[in-house]
């Protein structure tokens, strides 16, 4: 009995830990699915005027409709679109009333980088966003070539002399620019895979525990003699 007591306790404790981690990931999965549903509902809501006071957290994904003037000047953020290839997001200043904000007009292929785009009076609908795309590996922008590698809103606002507010267009602002609207595709949701991994490890742990208990109970050769 003493020979199997320690493996039994060790096996039960390890199994309990792995099962609890799997259950926690299931809870996280439910939370993330509810969060994504909430974000999708906010993205698809009715458009409203640009709020006077803005909170980057509270107003993230808010649908907004603005009218005014698309101003000259733009920055090009390098991106890649599935089944299309590399290109640029076109970020431009937009004056609405007495305010000037950033508008992400959408995508153009690399061959259209230098093409002149429509400016002047227009209406734009889209969603407010403050993307978090900067990390320690993000290169500095190539100012001379006007190539940027992330939509860092404060930095772009300084470059284009606007408020640090970004509207990602859903409506088309130029015949040759394809809108890339906000969606939840870029928000990771790997909790199901994590749960399967933990429960799979729990199954393996249980099998190993049973095996060691069986080996511990089997009589040695000296005992059999």
TrEMBL record:
Say yes or no: keyword Membrane present. yes
- The residues that cross the membrane are 195-214
Q: Which domain of life is it from?
A: Bacteria
Question: InterPro entries from the entry?
Answer: Surf1/Shy1, Surf1/Surf4
Write down the membrane topology.
Multi-pass membrane protein
- Say if the entry is tagged with keyword Aminoacyl-tRNA synthetase: no
Q: Which UniProt keywords apply?
A: Cell membrane, Membrane, Transmembrane, Transmembrane helix
> Where, per UniProt, does this protein localize?
Cell membrane; Membrane
Tell me a GO cellular component: plasma membrane
| Pfam families, sorted | SURF1
Tell me its family: Belongs to the SURF1 family.
Name under which the protein is recorded: SURF1-like protein
Biological source species: Ruegeria denitrificans
């Amino acid at each position: 009995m003493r020979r199997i007591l320690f493996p039994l306790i060790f096996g039960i404790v390890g199994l309990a830990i792995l099962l609890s981690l799997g259950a926690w990931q299931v809870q996280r999965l439910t939370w993330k699915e509810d969060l994504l549903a909430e974000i999708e509902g906010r993205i698809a809501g009715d458009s409203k005027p640009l709020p006077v006071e803005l909170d980057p957290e509270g107003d993230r994904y808010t649908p907004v409709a603005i009218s005014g003037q698309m101003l000259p000047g733009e920055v090009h953020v390098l991106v890649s679109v599935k089944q299309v290839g590399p290109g640029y997001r076109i970020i431009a200043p937009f004056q609405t009333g007495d305010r000037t904000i950033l508008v992400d007009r959408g995508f153009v292929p690399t061959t259209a980088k230098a093409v002149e785009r429509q400016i002047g009076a227009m209406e734009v609908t889209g969603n407010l966003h403050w993307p978090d795309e900067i990390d320690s590996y993000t290169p500095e922008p190539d100012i001379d070539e006007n190539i940027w590698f992330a939509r860092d809103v404060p930095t772009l606002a300084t470059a284009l002399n606007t408020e640090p507010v970004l509207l990602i267009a859903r409506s088309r602002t130029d015949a040759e620019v394809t809108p890339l609207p906000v969606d939840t595709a870029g928000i990771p949701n790997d909790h199901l895979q994590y749960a399967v991994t933990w429960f799979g490890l729990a199954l393996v742990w249980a099998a190993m525990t049973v095996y060691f208990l069986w080996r511990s109970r089997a009589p040695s050769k000296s005992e059999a003699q």
